[in-house]
Fold these 2 entries.
Entry 1:
Amino acid sequence: MKPTILLDCDTGIDDALTLLYLASLVKEGHAELAAVGTVHGNVPADIGAFNTLRILELAGLPAVPVAIGAAAPMAGQARYAYGFHGADGLGDTNLPEPYGSPVDMSAPDQIIRLARSRPGELTLLAIGPLTNLAIALLLEPSLTGLVRQVIVMGGALEHPGNVTSHAEANVWHDPEAAELVFNAPWPLTLVPLDATHPTAMDGTWLDRLAAGDTTTAQLATRILAFYVNAYRPLLDARGVVIHDALAAMLAIDPSLAEYIERPVRVELHGEHTRGTTLWDGRRGADQGHRPPLKVAVRADVREYQERLLTSLL
Ligand code: BDR
Ligand code: CA
């Protein structure tokens, strides 16, 4: 069945690459992109919405509705990731203003309205902090039974964090929201750094992309240049980790990863560990009454890289 995707994002360089990937799937008839909502995270939510409109228009999908969502997390203040994504969120490429505008509805409202109007159909794909999903759940608790599935890029279980020693960015930006979303009774697949980080694209992959003569390949190369510099000290080489696109690909084809089913908690209080995702991996451990998440622990790296490259080319 062709998935109907409602994307929640904080565009962002790897979010932008994910939009380009989704656009190619839509144009090939493999998915429907019903709507997009944006959230604080890599950049402010309104900047993320305009970046999303820019990319969707350049990718030939100008009619997809884009709604602005939460400007701040459930507790504390928003913090942005300009060092990784550039001052404009798109690697300082200064792309032209979009023709379109965000819709006159908040991103959490858009989630609820679409889920009510298309019960059982939506794949909720979240590649930013989880504030919009948490607000939607608080406003409409029956949302858990209205969506087909939820896919979240976030967390780090047995992999180091990427903001602190233990916390991954999307969860770290709003730990309270993540805890609410992970504890809700809906079918949720988590795609943490354990699965995404080993998929780092190397210089050869980047060169193959740069050699592509399509608008999408050239745009992707232009946006990625800043990210390559940001990742150099982390990878000790020329390369990038396009976290969010892996979650999108697994939403379409889950067979590209191996999974462990287990509840996941979020540390909300630790002085050094706030935003850490935890599971109890002890043999025979009592997992309590929390819903188990399907956690991607390993992806087919080669297949992921080739499929993403092919769609961008
Ligand atoms: C996640 O954090 C953001 O910087 C990326 O866009 C991705 O969603 C990776 O930890
Ligand atoms: Ca993101």
Entry 2:
Amino acid sequence: MTDEIYKPGLEGVIAGDTDIAAVEQTSLSYRGYGIGDLATKTTFEEVAHLLLYGELPNSSQLSEFRSTLAQYRALPPELVQALRLIPTDVGMMDVLRTGVSMAGHFDPVKGDSADDLRRRSVWLMAVTGGVVSARHRLITNKEPLDPKPGLSHAAQILYQALGEDPDETATRLLDLTLILYAEHEYNASTFATRVVASTLSDMVSGIVTGIGTLKGPLHGGANEAAMNMLLQFDSPAAASAWIHEAFVKKHKVMGFGHRVYKNGDHRAFILEDELRTLAAKKDQMNWMEIYDAIKDPMVNEKKIFPNVDYPCGLTYYLLGLPVDMYTPLFVCSRVTGWCAHFIEQATNNRLIRPRSRYTGPAAREVTPIGQRS
Ligand code: SDX
């Protein structure tokens, strides 16, 4: 094949077009809007509408979007029953994978037009948030809570998980992380979802695939892995000793590095500023000293920068959220990006099927079984 390209991990390969996000060294934008602008001037529901419908909503479109979301919030009782059957030690990402798959048997949206797919996307936003909240209640020996009318998506997730109206800071910071996590062009989980769409399979299969892909610690699972790393340390000195040992052993440090960003992750810069403010407000600057004891050598000695997952893990921790919920919250956001890409692929499709380079045994004849050693 004359036009053969060989790039392990498809590094740097342009595998398709997209109108949804542009990820560059110098900027990140969703449908032309800069991430900094979105972070300071919109809410997650507005960003979800932008990703799914192509435009930021006006007030009436936003209230219609939110009422559609509210219409889907109550989980089917059969799904809640299934969540009760899953052993309590099963991780929340595995529960979410099962929960979305089970929810698919009760999909209220019929049809597969682009509008049906957009409505199914909104339903999946409600399902993912609902499963995370209900599961947290069940594993803490509490009954799942009914949705509370009038809350934003972020506030609803917190309310239904924690059983109380969340404070303004927690709501605003969760909403910010949902905006930052929503979309990132052809990352591993989104690309996997597009592969599913390219075979003309269904959207629920695509989202279950996205969940399974995001779980890995080299991808979305890094926010939990980064927090579990920080939880090892009782002082900045301990963290500093650990990171320099990691350099010697060439260990991968979770929450750092990125396949595209080589001078830092725009989202990490935005979130880290908020994290520092949160830590000061909660009088937990000791955590920032440990955070910096890992970050500073990575940046100054290795030129490897934090990605969004590094500040996000500690942000969620300081908000009092259980570590096992962090990557599921990433799903509650990225489900919008996955669905937008599923729709984009399905409406302008070419089966995604790359080639591989064969490195196995040379051609050989079969020996009849009686003569095999
Ligand atoms: C997300 O793609 C996306 O957009 C993903 C994401 C999204 O929004 O969808 O941004 C979300 O997944 C963020 C990434 C979360 N993952 C982690 O934090 C896991 C730790 N990071 C690394 O595993 C790594 O940085 C990757 C996987 C993220 C990117 O790896 P690459 O592009 O394959 O780069 P590489 O592993 O080849 O590293 C290049 C060099 C290597 O050194 P050498 O072997 O050449 O000497 O940099 C080193 C690596 O060892 N390096 C690291 C490192 N990341 C890169 N060394 C230590 N710790 C790290 N985290």
